[in-house]
Design a protein that fits this description.
116 residues; Rieske Iron-sulfur Protein; 4-stranded antiparallel β-sheet; globular; mainly beta
Length: 116
């Protein structure tokens, strides 16, 4: 089985608080778990705009706001850009099984500013 097909454990669902932004590491890759009211996403820790740590932002259970330039994303809509944001969030594929949260992460998801 190729590594990209492997589901990696992230955390137990019980360990996540309501509206939490949880810093985790999956297979050596730093990620941010966004525990929304209607959906959970696992995303890169940095903003697609200028690398600001998204865990320092504001999250109301539906919309994640970067504290640096106020870019926003709808977690309910899978990280779609809203407001001032000009790019969606990149998201790892996730699944929930047996009270655990899993994702597929064979390499870090990078934004254009991180590839330069």
């Amino acid at each position: 089985m190729e590594s990209k097909d492997k589901w990696s454990p992230v955390c137990s669902l019980d360990s996540l608080s309501e509206n939490e932004l949880a810093l985790k590491e999956v297979r050596g890759i730093p990620v941010l778990v966004v525990n929304g009211k209607n959906r959970r996403l696992i995303i890169p820790r940095s903003c697609p705009h200028m690398s600001n740590e998204l865990a320092e932002g504001v999250f109301d259970g539906h919309t994640l706001t970067c504290a640096k330039h106020m870019w926003q994303w709808s977690i309910d809509e899978g990280g779609e850009a809203v407001g001032l944001a000009e790019a969606p969030l990149r998201c790892y594929e996730t699944k929930e099984e047996g009270g655990q949260l899993f994702c597929r992460a064979d390499k870090a998801l990078l934004y254009e500013h991180e590839c330069e």
